Amino acid sequence: MANNERSFFKKVLSVFVTNGVLFVVGMGSSILSARLLGPEGKGVVGSAVALSGIGTQFLNFGMHGSHSYQLAKNPSCMNRVAGNNLLMAALAAVCGGLLYAVVRQQPEWTASTGVMLGLVCLYIPLSLYQLLIQNAFLGVGRVGVYNRLNLINGLGYPAMLLCVAVLGVVSPETVFLCTLAASGLVVVCGLVRLKPLLGEGIRLDITFFRNCLPFGIKSYMACLGSYLVIRSDVLMIRYFLGEAQTGIYTVSVNLSDIVGMVPGAVSILLFPEAASMTSDCERAVFMRKVLVRLAIVMAGLTMAAWFLSGIVIPILYGMEYAPSVRAFQILMPAVFFMSLQSVLSNYFAAKNMWTGNIVTPFIGLAVNFSMNAVLIPRMGIEGAASASVVSYGAMMAVMLARFIGDSRRIEKELRKHEA
Q1: What is the distance, to the nearest Å, from the Cα of residue 141 to the centroid of all Cα atoms in its chain?
Q2: Closest CA relative to residue 280, chosen from 412, 396, 383
Q3: Dihedral of CA 296/262/352/140: which sign?
Q4: What is 284-304 written as a DSSP string?
Q5: Closest Cα partner for 194 from 148, 157, 153?
Q6: DSSP string spanning 341-377?
Q7: What pLDDT score does 400 carry?
Q8: What confidence category does residue 111 fall into, taking pLDDT thresholds of 50, 70 and 90?
């Protein structure tokens, strides 16, 4: 147990170091894109990112989680996982093409230009394949490869953004194209690193695909609900308030995402680590230690971000983005709640206990959607941030109650066994 803990926290530390670099780079990229595009252009790109992210979530069918689970149990199935990945990307490409053809016939459905719509539909299968390939490396414990791929993505985007700025071809479409190109670079590098792990080569096994689906669908339902909670407010702000306010709110969301890198690192590493444990008691004790340490770190981090935001955002982004300060500050409790909720969700996923993981995000989504519909027209972007706090607070409370109940059950069974 002690060796497992040291190994896990060593992996977490390595991801933290990587995320520290990405934190700085991400801040620079966010500032540069905001300065280049202005609030309205930033809103267009933010909406495109939200749409493509939702598309990726709709089409992944939870296979990234299922593959991590399968690989944690049996690393030798990597060649069949790689076959599944190619099949999923191909299906997503077909769906993206159909989406483009349908929406182009109904231009009133979207405010996006034809070029931006095409880029979104192209980015969906590419980002899906990136998600699948990176999670495959996590499943076999190749955290170093995962970190390097994240660095390639994090450094590639601002490098391409700088090229766009120097060439003087700045537009929402070219900025979003930088996102797409960085993702493509990650995929190419990931395939190169994947080759030595394939053994007999990529194998398309329909039986293995079907076997992965039950776990994947459960993960899919849970992740889809959670992602919709995160991104639905951006689209609702665009609907109620327009592109400029969306761009201002996107700055708050982007910075909140950067703060959320810490629990994200813990969550993605916790899942395969907990799934590989055979004892419920060992898993619960391990989870308590992770949860307490994460809560302390995130409390300090979110409070520091709250105090610094009033100074940092106007100076770095410009006074036109000053209204995002208050929205960002309101979002900090939501980031804290989300960090604990996401880690607890991965803990229950590792135990294959999915009912609560599926129901809880949709409770949060219902709260978030209904509150956004009321608060955004009345309070603007601050109303959207307030809705996120309430919805994530509710989700965390449900997950924490589940964990306490599960821990008590385990302790009761352990005492009965000892007696």
Answers
A1: 19
A2: 412
A3: negative
A4: HHHHHHHHHHHHHHHHHHHHH
A5: 148
A6: HHHHHHHHHHTT--HHHHHHHHHHHHHHHHHHHHHHH
A7: 94
A8: very low
